[in-house]
Design goal:
Strand order of the largest sheet: 6-5-4-7-8-11-10
CATH topology: Rossmann fold
CATH superfamily: Vaccinia Virus protein VP39
Number of helices: 11
Radius of gyration: 19 Å
Structural class: alpha/beta
CATH class: Alpha Beta
């Protein structure tokens, strides 16, 4: 594998769920997608609670090394700019996943998206629900994204969610899609978001599911590892445990299709550029495969959890 960059300095860490420092090897691999470093990265499993996390890991201060200028959220790869078909499919999927909040959005509410990326979700929501207010936070935001969101009256904040100060009891809905696995301090962030939610507010999370049936097929090459950007990987039970610890009550938990994980798995395994997240054939085929798997009762590599705030009393 050819890499053009030097190794990223790594730091030792501990389990974010039980704080244990005891672990065993779980998986290892390279950055097969962006090749930001030539080194091998390790996933370990906590010997106390079973949580899986990257250790050692890149420090938060070097987060910019993990997300290069050609990162998909900065290039508009999943927008109409690159593929109208993929953008349309993405819109259908995200619309359906927000059905739970349709009434709140229609009446007008305050929504925050953590990791808003290319801003597509917020822009789509603003067009459908003009009475609601929308804010997005991300580590990096392209000039094109800033302009598109500004034109729609959407507020954007460039910051890590670990370091940002959020207003208290402000948001009705906070969305965190495919983000919690990227966080250095997920428990700290979850507590911060809970304080920023209104009394009857909701937090919606989508993240890879470590219990996905395809993980065992691909072993170290499983796309959900996404070395070195995925720092913590959750099963349904471990994510529930962390949410309960940080003051949330689970309202809904479901399986989702995970075509991107399949694509990244095959890309890593075969080293083939045919398997990319901009290939509509791959996206369609693997979405259908996971849809059938869900119908058969299998656990896929993508999960959704909607929570409410536990009583503060």
């Amino acid at each position: 594998m050819n890499h053009s960059r030097t190794n990223i300095p790594l730091e030792k860490t501990r389990c974010v769920i039980c704080n244990s420092i005891k672990f065993s090897h779980f998986a290892s691999g390279f950055d097969y997608q962006y090749r930001v470093s030539p080194q091998q990265f390790l996933m370990v499993q906590c010997q106390s609670c079973g949580h899986v996390y990257q250790n050692p890991r890149p420090p938060l201060s070097l987060s910019h090394r993990l997300y290069p200028q050609n990162y998909y959220t900065l290039t508009g790869r999943h927008t109409q700019k690159s593929s109208r078909l993929i953008a349309m499919a993405k819109k259908i999927v995200t619309d359906r996943r927000l059905d739970f909040f349709q009434r709140q959005l229609s009446l007008g509410c305050n929504l925050l998206e953590i990791g808003c990326g290319d801003g597509d979700l917020l822009i789509n929501l603003k067009r459908h629900y003009p009475l609601s207010q929308f804010t997005g936070i991300d580590l990096a935001l392209s000039d094109a994204t800033k302009t598109r969101c500004k034109n729609q009256g959407i507020r954007l904040i460039k910051s890590s969610v670990e370091t940002i100060i959020l207003p208290k009891k402000t948001y009705d809905i906070i969305i965190m899609n495919q983000v919690i696995e990227h966080l250095w301090k997920p428990a700290l962030v979850l507590k911060k978001l809970r304080r920023s939610l209104k009394k009857d507010g909701h937090l919606s999370i989508e993240t890879p599911n470590l219990d996905g049936y395809d993980r065992k097929i691909f072993s170290d090459y499983w796309g959900g590892y996404y070395y070195p950007r995925h720092l913590n990987l959750f099963s349904g039970s471990s994510l529930t445990r962390l949410l309960n610890q940080t003051g949330y009550r689970i309202i809904m938990q479901k399986k989702l299709v995970a075509p991107i994980n399949w694509i990244f798995s095959f890309h890593a395994w075969f080293k083939s550029d045919f398997f990319t997240d901009s290939n509509p054939v791959c996206l369609a085929c693997f979405s259908l495969l996971d849809f059938l798997a869900i119908r058969l009762g299998l656990t896929t590599s993508n999960q959704k959890i909607i929570t409410s705030v536990k009583s503060r009393g």
